[in-house]
Amino acid sequence: xxxxxxxxxxxxxxxxxxxxxxxxxxxxxxxxxxxxxxxxxxxxxxxxxxxxxxxxxxxxxxxxxxxxxxxxxxxxxxxxxxxxxxxxxxxxxxxxxxxxxxxxxxxxxxxxxxxxxxxxxxxxxxxxxxxxxxxxxxxxxxxxxxxxxxxxxxxxxxxxxxxxxxxxxxxxxxxxxxxxxxxxxxxxxxxxxxxxxxxxxxxxxxxxxxxxxxxxxxxxxxxxxxxxxxxxxxxxxxxxxxxxxxxxxxxxxxxxxxxxxxxxxxxxxxxxxxxxxxxxxxxxxxxxxxxxxxxxxxxxxxxxxx
Length: 306
Ligand SMILES: C[S@@+](CC[C@H](N)C(=O)[O-])C[C@H]1O[C@@H](n2cnc3c(N)ncnc32)[C@H](O)[C@@H]1O
Prior knowledge:
binds S-adenosylmethionine; globular; about 300 residues; about 35% helix; alpha/beta; Rossmann fold
């Protein structure tokens, strides 16, 4: 059972994210980071959401529930017949992300080069093209290099804001990075570092470093911290509903934000429990064995005193 309260503790929630999301209140989050699994939607079936609140003044763009939206979906399906399932999986969750962002809020959607272009069109429809803020390229240099094409060493993060006239973005708060040629700028500038652009060179989580949790798809906290710093304020609520090892939670702790991290995998929740337990309440999914225990405890409590 989700126990989110605006003045309550940060939460780690185990379970199907759509079920948890539907219990969270509108506009509760300043920032959402999502790193969904690649095409696992094939195994997932989601209940379609059929309504979404439109913002004032956004009329005139393609309505998601309208005929043009359906046509657009059919066109997408024709391009890639493996896509509709992933689309069906992601779409209701992105609609929830839109609902849950406050009016200053920002979504960071982290995808690989095969999915990102479809997702861009989907987000344009859900958020509106005017709400597209950035395409961030995370570039790294690790692992084998194929000789059959350009070796792929980047991932893409789409950035959408809830309201292009009200969104929060504070570049002063962002971790700066070293100049590539520090000799070309003043010593003061070199010492301060430069503001990151939309191309982020950042190492992957080191297989031997302290940050490594053992969770296979863990992303570097340095990446997610930048997003949190730029797009929320201390004390704000931030959300990740494909949370894995809880990287967003770790970035929130470092920057004094409150967080909700949701994942359906018990293994992910184990990792988050040890990584974030001093900073959040952990709510496990009820499984058959825990239900049995709960019934036993209940029976014991109700047993008449002898
Ligand atoms: C790519 S990983 C996220 C990794 C994370 N960014 C990190 O740094 O550790 C995607 C996560 O989504 C979770 N997931 C997939 N489908 C889900 C669903 N329907 N509800 C909740 N979690 C889901 C998986 O268990 C997995 O942990």
